[in-house]
Records
---
Amino acid sequence: MPLLRRPFALSNFDIKNRITSIVYKKCGPATEILAGKTAGDPLDVIGPMGNSFVSFKQGKKNILVAGGTGFGPIFFLKRYLDKQNSPSMMVLGCRSKTHLPVVASNGLSDAILCTEDGSAGFKGTVVDYVRSLPNDQIKDAVLFCCGPAPMLKACHEFALEKGVECNVSLEQVMACGVGACMGCAIKIKGETPYARVCTEGPVFNSKTVVWT
Amino acid sequence: MDLTVPIGTQSLPNPVGVASGTFGYGSEYEKLIDFSVIGALFTKAVTLNPRPGNDIPRMVETPSGMLNSIGLANVGVERFISEKMPFLSKLPCAIIPNVAGSTLDEYRAVLNRLEECREVWGYEINISCPNVKHGGIAFGTDPIIVEELVLSLRERTKRPLIIKLTPNVTDISDIARAAESGGANAVSCVNTLVGMVIDVQKKCTVLPGKTGGLSGPAIRPIGVAMVYSVSRAVSIPVIGIGGIMNGSDALQYLLAGAWAIQVGTGNFVDPSITSEVLTSIISFCDQEKLTCIKDLHQFIR
């Protein structure tokens, strides 16, 4: 039986209809329990905590990159930008078609799908896809990324190479989730060598992160 | 009933505290809890200089518990006073900074500086952190050093001095007696137990410092047993800590001989747990017609 709460990113927050959602992967006892819940079951939730994707700039093209369950917050950001009439491109990657997250039927219609085995959409990783874009699409872009650490690191390196801004949403094991326990630290550059993912994050400019 | 807990010349308003390291500097929980139900807030450890803390990852969940190696990450005493005390000062609960150091001088310097803060109720002296190389647990495992440290701090303050003991010793009662001889007003019992988790696939320890401190319900029976022993070895009050998740857990400690308790890991699971713990203690005592905390000590001999 799990002891601690689990941190998740929101993939939707509809205050009018009182609906919120998350995208998660069954990967242990806690998410197994979550997967066993049915409509109407109560969940005890604290949130939202931490920061969010913020640095949208006029005239910039927002490139949204997601891997696996990182699709959740990226999907949320895409819908937000659409409402703001802010142009954006959403690139979603996973290992193969069978690993695609289960989302609302209209969820993927405007996504550029990438699968490593080529079973759906572009064959290759999300970073391979972004690299394949012509330079004029990249030079004024801002990247917003969420997914596994190697993917985020590759996005960071790509952004650095092209001289564009890259924001990454990070994951770390957490205990308190409110900034008290210092358990979810990640290494950053600057005066203080660590930042809390739950409070200063989860979104960081990729340049401030110490990538390993 | 009389909920107060006499410690030194003062008393805590009720026996339910929140443990150091699990409640930050209080403000982190501002929007989530009612501070009026907390008897004492034991702050994140305060050291003389700021400490960035240990390498990552710093924690891993274990069966009925968690293993952490934070490494006393804190803002240092100066920023504690300028940035954290203004919020803490406004709270209705007793504010008890957890004082840590790597040398006797460092403990003294932190305490001297905190003596200037009027709103500090007393001190919890951390001689038991398992996650720092020098100091911490090195102080807490030798009764001679413990007595010397407590004597030296005793000279510097009239406020309650609570010594937080480590369970990672052969006989915790020896250390408790040393603290009492030095002039301590209470002991907190216990800090985390040293533990290790290995990632079998990667063939390495999950924590880069290899070991960490185990907390949570997994250690509760150990904590209760140690409180039972220590409360019979010393005449100063014992504050029970270790895996308290509800009122019944807290009552185990109080029945074992503790005068007060601290909720630690339980705050992570439910930030408002202290409220339920206090309510349960009160209703149990009312039901059993007990009029003060001491009355709970008569049952288990």
---
Amino acid sequence: MTMPRTIQVVGLSHHTAPVEVREALAFPRARLPEALASMRAVEGVEEVVILCTCNRVEVYVCARSAQGDALVKGLLTNFHGLSAAGFERHLYTREGMDAVAHLFRVAAGLDSMVLGEAQVTAQVKAAYELAAAERTVGPVFHRLFQHSLSVAKRVRTCSEIDSGRASVGSVAVQLAQRIFETLTDRTVLLIGAGQIGEVVLRSLHAAGARTTFVANRTFARADALARECGGAAVHFDQLPENLARADIVISSTDAPHYIIRRADVENALRARRGRSLFLIDIAVPRNIEPSAAELAGCYLYNVDDLQMVVEETISRRKRELSRCLATVDEETKKFMRWARGLEVAPTIVELRDSLHELKRQELSALLNKYPDLPAAARIEIERTADRLVNKILHQPIKALQEPSSEDHGRGVLAAARRLFGLEQPSSHPLPRAPRAAEKEEP
Amino acid sequence: MALWIIAMALYVGQAAAAAFPLLRPGRPAAGRLPYLALGALAFHAGFLITRALQVHGLPIETRLDSVALFLWLTAAVFVATEGPFRLGGISGVFWPLFSLCAIGMGIFLSGRVPMDRPTLGRTWLLLHLIPVYAGYAGFAVATAAGVTRLIQQRLLRGKRPEALWARLPSLAKLDQIGRVAVSLGFPLFTVGLAAGAIWAERHSGLLGRAWYSDPKVIAGFAGWLIYAAVVHIRLAGKMSANRAAILTIAGFLVALATFGVAHAYPGRTPPFSAPPGISSKT
């Protein structure tokens, strides 16, 4: 009898490995087809998908071998020319139901660094589509990965796991959009080129803000950053006039005193003739006089204010986690029932055929012995025999279809085959994914 | 009356359906079709049609009829602008306020006496009543935008983490809705008032020198002055959007007061009522 197929995932993520290890084991996108093909060529491996993002490298295999982790380690070693000792301790392996649940959690963003982020769903989809294009997925992984995408959708629809913004930059963008609606025709002024300030500026730029001014003590640094965002550098002494021109001001200098006083904001608001001004003070100590927030039309947020919104979002998402995991659990069981059906279907067919053949032989012998039996009696005897066979089959088939666990299920399958004398290996019910060498010519 | 009560119940349902998503943390309020409001509008229209058939004319025989027509126009204008202009979270403010006003007016005016004997001509009726009501409908939308703006501004300035602000429209959009609604409503309201004044003077000489002693005329004129100020100040760009929102709300409160004043002190000008030739009673 052939080995049953097992779904395995071997990989590492931000939970288990530092960025140096992750980047060393990452598959360049251009070389992913090669990696998929080399893994698929290994004996016993039937289906392969490689998920490679900035936070994780995972190889999903469906194999008639329990050595999936060894195979993947071999792939990583050979492909990257590294010693297994360098990354082995960062690897994790999940098998069967655990592997399925892991993929569902990953696709739904429940295993992500930022809980509930949606980008990973698109990355799972891209990994699956690439593997499908390279013909390294078969019936199991087609079903599994499509199911993972629907699980991700269900988790997001039925919970608040992706609600709100979970980074300072995205909160700043959202606030700006609540004030100005669209950022496309808005002017952003960045004062000081600190790291968080730069992140916020880039977020606003990515959200559509086109006109950017950067003021920094070091003009060259301001100029370089402004060019990257398609803006212009301005001198520090030009701040007052630029304050009136800007709709959004980000201040992130390390100055030990206020750079923007209440009076400066008041003058700017007057010059803006009632148009709102959004001030983001992410410097510590603060750069903008806090009392400026009292002025009509001025919206002043400091780093704690933004962080408070982020923390509220994260804690809300964490509260949703148990509900999402329950959904994942439910969907995992659903998938496993399908996979189990795939595995036991040939045995059930054989079992039915075997008992019905037995019934046919015994009926034939009986009816030959009593040829004068009336037609009605013959029909009744045949019906009784059918009912008997179905009643005998009912409990074994039920046990085969509803195992209490994966291992138990395999034990039941083996026992059923042995008890009913089905020792011949079961045939594969569905077409397999072709090997790389079997691929059709384009 | 059953149609009116069903319509009110559906408006209340719509108010709850629109306000509830605003109270839930997390996901932004999704823009769904206001099915309950559409149902309410249908029953409301049924009530107006029934009344029109009863009086063989425009249903403005009683003050309740008149208010019902105004409320229907307001709700219809809001529903018509809700989708195309993506009013979103304003619904959560508009429908509760609308329901409150509608039920309050319904209770206050139900079973009251019919309006004074109508003397208005058909042309003047159309020129006076319809533009005034359409103008008020615009002001109602602007008021909802103004109230939402005040809430949104308070939330944004209060830096509240529960993120209700994320579910309400942006300040810029609310300003735009308020500006457009007042800019469209004001000319209509002006035409309606002017038509009413001309009619009052020509047909009855009811205004005369002592026009200022009529509470309804004073209230109507005060409302017009406030909206004129809002339009001009906004055009000149000399007032903060927040103050413009407050002024818009004040204007609408005066408009509501006009209804109350007109009811309590009919004065010398006849209220909005069916003219001879339109109503079967004449």
